Known about the structure:
Radius of gyration: 21 Å
Function: May have a photoreceptor function.
Family: Belongs to the DNA photolyase class-1 family.
Strand order of the largest sheet: 1-2
InterPro entries: Cry_DASH, Crypto/Photolyase_FAD-like_sf, Crypto/Photolyase_N_sf, Cryptochr/Photolyase_FAD-bd, Cryptochrome/DNA_photolyase_1, DNA_photolyase_N
CATH topology of the domain at 242-377: DNA Cyclobutane Dipyrimidine Photolyase, subunit A, domain 3
GO biological process, one term: photoreactive repair
Shape: globular
Protein name: Cryptochrome DASH
CATH class of the domain at 242-377: Mainly Alpha
Low-confidence stretches: 373-381
CATH superfamily of the domain at 242-377: DNA Cyclobutane Dipyrimidine Photolyase, subunit A, domain 3
Distance between the termini: 28 Å
Mean pLDDT: 91
Amino acid sequence: MGFGRSEHNKRFEHQSAANLAQSLASLEQVLYKPCDLTELAGIIKSQNVTDLYRAFHPGDYEKEALQHLMELFDLELHTAYSLSLFHEGQLPFSKERLPKTFTQFRKRVENLAVVRPLPSPDALPQHIDLAIPRVCMLSEVNASIFYHFNGGEAQAKAHLESYFDSQRPQTYKLVRNELDGWDNSTKMSPWLAQGNLSPRQVWYEVNNHEAHHGENDSTYWIKFELLWREFFHWYAHWHGRDLFKSSGLKENERDWGQDERVFENWCSGNTGYDIVDACMNQLNHTGFMSNRGRQLVASCLIHELGLDWRLGALYFEHNLIDYDVGSNWGNWQYIAGVGADAKPVRRFDLEKQTQMYDPEREFIDFWTESDDLDREERKCG
C-alpha cells in the first residue's frame, strides 16, 4: 500500500519555501535547503555554529532529529512557538495532567493571554555562503490551477486580510459544515500548516474584526476551532508515538482490516458510497477537503469498510495541502474511538449526512460526473 506525496502537497510546500526565499532576498538573505540531517550537521560543524534557532514542532520525527543534533554538538537552543497559540510554559497543566478531552482543555486555556505577533524585521545579519542548493524564487514555481490555494506568506496575508475585511466571519458557524465552496470556512488551514501564517495572527484578526463588526457565535467559533487545533498540537507533542499506534491512547488492541483492494477503492473514490466517493475525488483533484467531508470519509473507512484507521491517516498525510501531524492523526483517532473522546466511537450515517449536506446531490454529481477540465476550471475550496 505504498504511495508518495501528492503533487498538490509538494507544490504548496515548494511555493511556501519559494516565497520565503523571495522575502529573505529583499533583506539580502539566502534560503538554503539541506538535503538531509547529515548535510545540516556538516554545516553546523564547518561554520562553527554555536546557537540553533527553531520553531517548536510537536511531531515525533522532528523531535528525534533535533535530539540527534543536540547530542552531536554543544548548541544553545532557542525556541519560537510560531505554530501554536501558547508557549508550553503558559499551559496550566503538566504533560502527565494533559486534559483527556477537548472540552476539558478548552475550559483551562481559552482565557489565557495570546502573545501578540511581532512585525517583520527591517534588517538581518549578513548571510553566509554555502555550497548547497538554494531555494528557487516564485517565478520558477508553477501556480495552482485552483488559484485560491497558492503557498507562501504573501498569499496567506492577502487571504487573511480579504477574509476578515468581509462579512464572512459573521456567518462562519452557519456554513462551516458545507461540503464545497470558498466561503464556507476560513480556508486558513493550508497556510497555518506550512507556517505561512501563525494561529496568533488569525486570533488577533478575529479580535480586530470583532472590534469593528461586532462579536457573535460565528466569530467566537473561529477561535473555538483554533483551540481545537491547539489541543491536537499539544496532544501530539505529549503523546508522542502513541499518536501512531493502532490502539491509540486505549489499552485494548483491535484487529483492524488491511484489505488492499478495499483501501485502493476508498483512495480512488470507488467505495459505492456516493458522498464518500465525491469527497475523495475532491481531495485527489485539489489536495483539500472540507472538515465535514473528512469526518465522513474517515467514518466510512473505519466503520463501513472495517479498515485500519492509520491507513486513512497516512493517505491524508500524503495528500492534504494542510496536513498537520496533530490535527490529522488526532482527528483520525477521534473517529476511530481510540483517542481523545468521551464517546467510544464516532460513526456517521452516510445516507443521513447526504440528506443534510447535499440533498440536491449537486456536490456528488459534480465530483463524480464532471470531467477533469470542468474540475480544473472550478474555483474549488
